[in-house]
Design goal:
The protein is built from 16 helices and 27 strands. By secondary structure, the chain is an alpha/beta fold. It has 4 domains: 94 residues, Alpha-Beta Plaits (2-Layer Sandwich), CATH 3.30.70; 223 residues, FAD/NAD(P)-binding domain, CATH 3.50.50; 125 residues, 3-Layer(bba) Sandwich (FAD/NAD(P)-binding domain); 117 residues, Enolase-like, domain 1. Strands 1, 2, 3, 4 and 5 form a 5-stranded antiparallel beta sheet that branches. A 5-stranded parallel beta sheet has the order 8-7-6-12-22, with helices on one face. The protein has a 5-stranded antiparallel beta sheet with strand order 23-24-27-26-25, sandwiched between helices. Helix 5 runs parallel beside helix 9. The protein is globular.
Length: 583
């Protein structure tokens, strides 16, 4: 092949005619493919319409061998390629073909993602799909909260203990089960093995399938607008996404730090079960672990500062769920402030509490004024706060909120135009699925200026109790505060045929709607499979269905999803007066 190039003391420069590009993403893929060729120092692809790429090769690296590799790289990416006349790179492109690098950053990353959890991986993969050079920086274990210490291990334990509990407590008199046994130590080993498997399958192996994404182990510290230091090396990526997640927040209670305590992470690592456990916090994590440990044979006391458990849920859900937990022997104390904690001889814990007496005591009775609760172990499940300390964020012009969250606009950009944020570090919507969604949105906005809006108005959430508590949209109170004229209905689970057949004792479906238009504003469920049923409600809301349309939708008989239809019917009819499947 005749070499068609420009020779200079700084190396050789090539002009390549590229065919088959049809969008900006194609141009980025061609650029990325050429950048991977050995000896290439810089690449510029002006755009897909121009159909040309300019390549700068390091001195001494040129020749027919590199020419062949350049053409092969473009062709492997799915495009046609030929070297063309006029190899000189236009003067205005000289700077661009320097590779976008600087004297400190030899890699020239378009995007650096700080945090290797769900949000970080979604951001990195989206950046890779768009044709950009991406790096992930992680100082701890790959995979983040969900797979390592959150959703995955907790649901493994909850599911296993649920099987144990129901074997001992069958719902039907005709069912006689043998004496079941729970080997807690063995279960923890099984949990650890499954977590390790999923971490490898969903993160380590996934990362390996994207060889273009660099993974850097170490702590990242911002050194200015878009400068990042990791392990002593300094980088200047084009854009940065912070996805460092969140960690357990511990309230400032006298004596708590000195006494020591369990978190949701360390509680799931216990090799032996304590005889009794005090749990501070009765939101999702506190409720899930309270029921799980109680079913495993631990005497559990659940303590909540709010006037009811699951305080973000509808009051009807909280009340019914409290009945469930009490029926399983859990003591519940609400409206309680813990003033101090004492631990005697590294043994039992003593919580010194204050209450107005309106709802405190739960199954322990009405307790007013000051009182004490004791137990063998103490679990703090009072929420999570963003991990943003010690990173130089504020020095880099990134504004933080009252709880340490990164303040962003609707496109997830911080006050620093080079820096975006995604996942739990936003301080809200702390679910693995919203983390992945926000990571993808932040990545595309940062790299392409797409201005996509992070929208979680229709966001389903689930407490994995038994039965499950699930919610999507506005509560009745939120709807009224938003200015809606509101209609609501509450359907007891006893009107849902599958619940009758399954001998369910507790549960309900509450629907919140606009009284004028019939728009569905919120759906709140306590039932078996509520987490799956609520997604049907979310889809209906996203599609703009009204109560009348939901009522006229066909649902399979003897499913929990049928509760949605029956709840819609109750806006105008008494379902108790209807035959099976009647509308």
């Amino acid at each position: 092949m005749d070499s068609i190039k420009t020779n200079t003391s700084e190396g050789e420069k090539y002009r390549i005619e590229v065919t088959g590009m049809s969008c900006d993403s194609c141009a980025r893929h061609v650029k990325k493919a050429l950048e991977r060729v050995r000896g290439v120092e810089g690449v510029e692809v002006p755009g897909w319409k121009e159909g040309v790429a300019f390549v700068k090769v390091k001195p001494g690296e040129g020749g027919s061998g590199v020419e062949e590799e350049l053409l092969k790289a473009v062709r492997r990416a799915g495009y046609g390629a030929e070297l063309s006349e006029g190899g000189a790179i236009p003067p205005e492109m000289e700077k661009a073909t320097g590779g976008g690098k600087n004297q400190y950053d030899s890699e020239g990353y378009d995007l650096m993602v700080i945090g290797g959890g769900s949000a970080g991986f979604a951001a990195a993969i989206r950046g890779n799909e768009l044709g950009y050079r991406v790096a992930i920086v992680e100082e701890s274990v790959i995979g983040g909260t969900c797979v390592n210490v959150g959703c995955v291990p907790s649901k493994i334990l909850i599911k296993a203990v649920s099987e144990y509990y129901h074997a001992r407590h069958p719902r039907f008199e005709a069912v006689k089960t043998g004496w079941s046994e729970l080997s807690w130590g063995k279960l923890v080993e099984e949990k650890d093995g499954m977590v390790e498997h999923l971490r490898k399958a969903k993160y380590i192996d996934v990362l390996a399938s994207y060889p273009e994404i660099d993974y850097i182990e170490g702590k990242a510290v911002l050194k200015g607008e878009n400068w990042v230091e990791v392990n002593g090396a300094v980088y200047q990526p084009g854009k940065i996404i912070i996805s460092t997640g969140a960690k357990t927040w511990v309230p400032p209670i006298e004596g708590l730090e000195e006494c020591g305590y369990l978190t949701s992470t360390t509680a799931m690592e216990l090799k032996e079960l304590p005889a009794s456990m005090l749990i501070l916090g009765a939101s999702a994590v506190g409720i899930e672990l309270a029921q799980m440990f109680a079913r495993a044979g631990v005497e559990v006391s659940l303590v909540e500062v709010a006037e009811r458990i699951a305080p973000s849920m509808e009051p009807e859900i909280s009340e019914e769920l409290e009945k469930v937990l009490k029926s399983e022997g859990i003591r519940i104390f609400t409206g309680v402030r813990v003033r101090s904690v004492e631990r005697r001889n590294k043994g039992r814990y003593f919580l010194y509490c204050t209450s107005g007496g309106s709802s405190a005591g739960g199954s322990g009775g009405d307790l007013a004024g000051e009182f004490m609760i004791e137990g063998d172990s103490l679990l703090v499940a009072t929420g999570r706060r963003p991990v943003t300390g010690g990173m130089g964020l504020e020095e880099a012009g990134v504004r933080l909120g009252a709880r340490g969250e990164i303040v962003v606009n609707r496109t997830l950009r911080s006050d620093n135009p080079y820096i975006y944020a995604a996942g739990d570090v936003l301080g809200k919507d702390m679910f693995v699925y919203t983390a992945a969604y926000s990571g993808s949105v932040a990545s595309e906005n940062a790299l392409t200026g797409a201005e996509l809006v992070y929208d979680t108005r229709i966001l389903p959430g689930v407490i994995f109790s038994d039965p499950q508590a699930a919610s999507v949209g506005l509560t009745e109170r939120e709807a009224r505060e938003a200015g809606y004229s509101v209609d609501t209905t509450v359907l007891p689970i006893g009107h849902v045929p599958i619940a009758i057949a399954s001998r369910d004792r507790y549960g309900l479906v509450k629907v919140v709607a606009d009284s004028g238009s019939g728009e569905i504003l919120g759906v709140h469920i306590l039932s078996d499979e509520a987490g799956s049923v609520v997604e049907i409600a979310a889809i209906a809301m996203k599609a703009g269905l009204r109560i009348e349309e939901l009522k006229n939708t066909l649902f399979p008989y003897l499913t929990y999803a049928e509760g949605l239809k029956l709840a819609a019917i109750t806006f105008k009819k008494d379902v108790a007066a209807l035959s099976c499947c009647a509308v």
